[in-house]
Request: fold
Amino acid sequence: MEMAYTGTGVMVDSGPLNGVIAGKGKGESVEKAIAYLEAKALGQGTTNYRLRDWLVSRQRYWGAPIPIIHCEHCGAVPVPEADLPVTLPESVAFTGKGASPLAKVADWVNVPCPSCGKAAQRETDTMDTFLDSSWYFLRYADANNEAAVFTPERVNDWLPVDQYVGGIEHAILHLLYSRFFTKVLRDRHLLNFDEPFQRLLTQGMVQAITYKNSEGQFIVPDDIADLNHPTDPTTGEALQVSYEKMSKSKFNGVPPAQVLAKYGADTARMFILFKAPPEKDLEWDDADVEGQYRFLNRVWRMVIAFATSEAASAVSAIDTAIDTMVPSELSKADKTLRRATHTAIKAITEDIEGDYQFNTAVSELMKLSNAIYDCVDKTTPAFAESICTLVKLIAPFAPHIADELWSHLFTDGACVHQQAWPQVDETALVADEITLVIQIMGKTRGTLQVPAGADKAALERYARESQVAQRYLEGKEIKKIIVVPGKLVNFVAV
Ligand SMILES: [Zn+2]
Reply:
């Protein structure tokens, strides 16, 4: 062997590591080597951050000035604290030639040396913007502080950041620098925490449809005669259709102003949240935007219909009606509706607080809306509860429409966004009935509504007596009956 083998393989001639798999993925050699050295007290594992030297100066105008004055006699002299911050001059010519544009602003560059008072020059390079982005979030906690970058009390009170959202392009440099700054400031006792961000979400990109010819040129959609069968307007050849990141050069941008003008901001939000989980790329689709628009319109009509109904006006305070509701005395339909209402509260709360599964939360909103739509008696307190809950649950997703609807339900001037988040009534989640699947020889032949608490014997009886079973088992001998409580009954018959 002439050089170290770096691929995946089995360790040989390696003492205690003989036979261990090495390499990326399934390899354990690094962990085992560390464990061996630690057990023998010969060394210990550590994390290598690979933070390299970082040249922080730039020959640019935009950037924080480096607060240094160069003096022939004293060398590099820091600008006295009383003169900070150094601000950028406003009369600058941008020529694109030579050194930093600041170097040509004579009345800014030439200053007396703070140390000896003789003629000296300011540093004309500015700092890399990464230097600002590495700690800007700390300043947010104390943005009006004129005396210092921040006071530790305020920053320790507000930070670390609970949830950071950003593009994947920041996942390496910006985050590493921010962690480095935080750790330095912690070592200087200016912070009492170790990491700047507790949780990171890198959101996906919005993609839209593109049309490309065989030479790789993107075609303007307006030039294509039939978008269902796209062909090149000059050659007539079929075009390649694919979703790609929105870009002017690919002619697939969707101007936000156009979407807002046609559908409003709430529809745009609902579509974006519904189309994909936030960490995944999102394919822009006009039909789906339209779908969310229709959904919001339906919610609007249902809530307004209730708000202007006699039921709502008779119940002068909807809240009171809901509070005085006796769940055990509810009709079957009301129980079903309450189950839908509280199932939605539970699911949406979990989707928001958990892994930000906003797309499934929007699905739950649609399910609740369907349950409300299907409800026959739209005058009961259970119905009022479901309507008010729907508006509260939709508020984080479609804030404008939700608040407008709330003002139709409650005329006390209150804002939906100041209402308490709805609480789950666990008793409302318990089903009185379940859907029992009837199988004959393992094949599903039908379903049956049965009491939820029925035991195995009762389930078998319900199944035997069902029309489905009677029809399929006629003239046959039952050999065996398999009962899965809460789910199904399977008849084995010949
Ligand atoms: Zn000097």
In short: The chain has a mean pLDDT of 90.
